[in-house]
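During the reporting period, our protein records have gained a structure token line. One record among many is quoted in full directly below:
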Amino acid sequence: MGPLNSKGRQSGSVLVTVAIIMPLFILMLGFIADIGRAFTYRADLNKACMAAAEEAAKCIDMQIAMDEGRTVLDAGFKEVLAAYFESNIAQSRSLQIESLDYEIIDGKENPKFIQVSSHAQVSCYFLKVVGINTIGISAYANGRVRKIK
């Protein structure tokens, strides 16, 4: 047997290079998939916050509005907020909602906006390889309370 020619050495080095780079490339695609899922869930979370804020902002106590001419939120606006949030968020084992909060801008007696915010954790599949089990996501939206005149 004679010495290897340069063509044999090149094909061997290409094989080694591909063997090293291919797993890294597959791992990087997995990381991109996990991060992409987190962005998709964040968009869903934002949509749910927007729907909840808009519908809760419509809950005006009409009796007080007619009698006193003031805009006051109805006592049931919290239930409306929670119901619209739940109906607009996709239930998944990969998404764990940690909080659903609201803030009434300018007080309950004369509100201008209702700000709904939520925080959740998205489970990772591929990022677990580097020790990242979940990705935290947050979203918020405002619903403008219409004044009764």
